Backbone:
């Protein structure tokens, strides 16, 4: 497996584009499209929020279709809490794209991100679709990545290549989202993180669903910026088979290679989200080891990743590990606090539930002044482990989010 | 029932004091004592955090005693994650107080609040105890309230009087805590919110436990500043019977009157915590109505109260109700989003899951610029309701918590 350049158009047979449709007040690009030149199988995971945006409802219906050709996405408006008007607008986006592309309506998936409770300027979207389709290009991944951004400061895309049965297969991805980030997505059930994955692997829809499900558990579903779960979180993947590998149709070795490569892409994108978190100045990686079960490890890691107190002390460069311990103990997971160890940047600061008095405070402080903070918790209860990613809680986060809708 | 002046010494037969023991670097008062002139029955609720501070462990052991006389409390140091040294120091605090007061060791309860992982300066505490006992006074409640403060900007105390069987009974309380506030306390199991309640009611230990348990569910356990649960949260109550009412020994009318009065005190103290939350500029009251069960109402109200995004927009005076909806749907409670209504300051902004287009935005904005924000969510699924309290998320919160331990 190796990293390659690009994003959603790195795999063969995918085109993408992005244009200014006039949805964002800023006048930036806000409408994006991915198109597969041949029929692709698709899988998707959606937010488990009880409130679900209209595009989530429509994509859930469309994902049942056997094959797919395109995903249309707007930024600047979530199309959520807009009732029947919202549902109709989401369908209308898909239909207009389908017509312009000359494909079936249900072969088009749809996603939105932005403010909740405002009607989509659907007229603007209709007007922009011809240009969106016309500008579809093999090097359009970057424009796509740009057009889906909201409060993101950086485009987020990556791609890998791996060999399946001696044939090179590519997986590319692009995502957006730096606030209201605490995805808990499930396949066909639930994420405003939006994530788009493409691959030229030949794989059955069923195996693609399974691979996506496995990949998100330890990547997107382990990233948090603010602990706020969105009504719009969605993760899509399309596989068009253009690589010409032998079809992945069961959970054999080919599947394992594919899933490992996919997880590499999703984990990298997840980290990009945390690193570009609203107001973030630092990336925090939290690893929990020695858990009885993977579920316990994930729960504890995620709980630490949502501690405002810990995230604020990271912002200040203050290695206050007591806040890690407190968050750990608040996770609702059974473990023995008197066996638990905590490490900051590799330095043991708590040993078997007790503060290490002689740890190197200078070194710990220096680590906390760096841009990449690592925290490790060893529960010493088993062999399961998990990693979660988040960012520090800064004054800028508050500033960004106190003036959003006005 | 009527409000009366004072705090923990408003009920008869209670004395209190507070002194400077040299625990806080700031040189402020940091050691406090409540003393009942006669034997009192006591009940307590403690944090459910897996990591439990040494004073929590010791008070859990001591609370099993039949009667109690005193509670000794220090601020500036949590005495948590200090291993056997910490346990020994907590016992030593209780023993020294017991000796100075001439009471049994197990008749003394102990509490600490402050930084985690630093040894308690137990020598300083021992030196200060004689003065602490000497200055015990009927008007000492205020000094007590001052001495337990950490990042609190205001003393927190209140008291009520109610009639039980024609006899006036008083309940007083004092608490501290404005950060690491997300108590989930259970009796004899679990709060660094520290809360101290006193009453001169005559009541059995069993009924006192039941009354405390009921009172905290809708008060302390519904307050959040940052969603971070402490290792030290504790809520104590002592009842010394000095009012001379007929003994409350079952769940009859007298119990109901007492519990209502107690809940009045705990709810008022809980609101004081939210209002004085670290960096807070506004108090937020969240009411969830129309829930199927009280548990659902509490879960949804608490989820909204911990939304960083919502709290940040309150700080900015931006009535972005979409964030209330998103938090609501992320609570993990089953309800029909298409029936749900949301009100901001009494103004309906979402009706049956859909944005109200014509709501009075000027009025909503004016409400969000006030100091008291109210949010109401109607799930229209039943008759259960709950209230939660929190504060806005400000740049000051981040500033306070990014430089704490250094």
Residues:
């Amino acid at each position: 497996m190796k990293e390659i350049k690009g994003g959603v158009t790195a795999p063969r047979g995918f085109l993408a584009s992005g244009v200014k449709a006039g949805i964002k007040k800023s006048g930036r690009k806000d409408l994006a499209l991915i198109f597969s030149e041949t029929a692709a199988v698709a899988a998707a995971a959606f937010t488990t929020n009880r409130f679900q945006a209209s595009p989530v409802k429509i994509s859930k219906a469309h994902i049942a279709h056997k094959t797919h050709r395109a995903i249309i996405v707007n930024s600047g408006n979530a199309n959520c809490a807009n009732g029947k008007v919202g549902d109709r607008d989401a369908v209308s986006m898909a239909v207009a794209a389908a017509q312009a592309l000359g494909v079936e309506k249900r072969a088009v998936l749809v996603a939105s991100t932005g403010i909740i409770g405002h009607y989509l300027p659907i007229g603007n979207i209709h007007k922009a679709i011809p240009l969106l389709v016309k500008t579809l290009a093999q090097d359009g991944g970057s424009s796509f990545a740009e057009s889906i951004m909201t409060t993101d400061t950086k485009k987020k895309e990556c791609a890998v290549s791996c060999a399946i049965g001696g044939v090179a297969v590519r997986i590319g991805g692009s995502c957006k989202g730096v606030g209201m980030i605490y995805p808990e997505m499930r396949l066909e059930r639930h994420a405003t993180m939006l994530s788009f994955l493409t691959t030229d692997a030949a794989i059955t829809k069923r195996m693609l669903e399974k691979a996506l499900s496995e990949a998100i558990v330890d990547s997107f579903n382990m990233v948090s910026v603010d602990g706020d779960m969105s009504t719009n979180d969605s993760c899509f993947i399309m596989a068009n088979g253009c690589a010409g590998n032998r079809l992945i149709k069961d959970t054999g070795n080919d599947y394992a290679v594919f899933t490992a490569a996919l997880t590499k892409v999703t984990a990298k994108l997840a980290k990009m989200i945390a690193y570009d978190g609203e107001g973030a100045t630092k990336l925090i990686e939290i690893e929990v080891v020695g858990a009885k079960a993977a579920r316990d490890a994930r729960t504890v890691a995620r709980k630490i990743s949502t501690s405002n107190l810990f995230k604020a002390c990271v912002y200040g460069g203050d290695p206050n590990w007591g806040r890690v311990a407190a968050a750990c103990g608040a996770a609702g997971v059974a473990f023995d606090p008197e066996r638990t160890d905590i490490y900051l940047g590799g330095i043991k600061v708590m040993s078997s539930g007790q503060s290490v008095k002689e740890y190197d405070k200078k070194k710990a402080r220096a680590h906390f002044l760096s841009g990449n903070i690592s925290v490790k918790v060893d529960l010493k209860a088993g062999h399961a482990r998990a990693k979660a990613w988040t960012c520090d809680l800064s004054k800028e986060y508050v500033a960004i989010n106190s003036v959003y809708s006005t």
In short: Residues 40 and 344 of chain B are 45 Å apart (CA to CA). Chain B touches chain A through 71 residues (CB under 8 Å). Chain B has eleven helices and 16 strands.
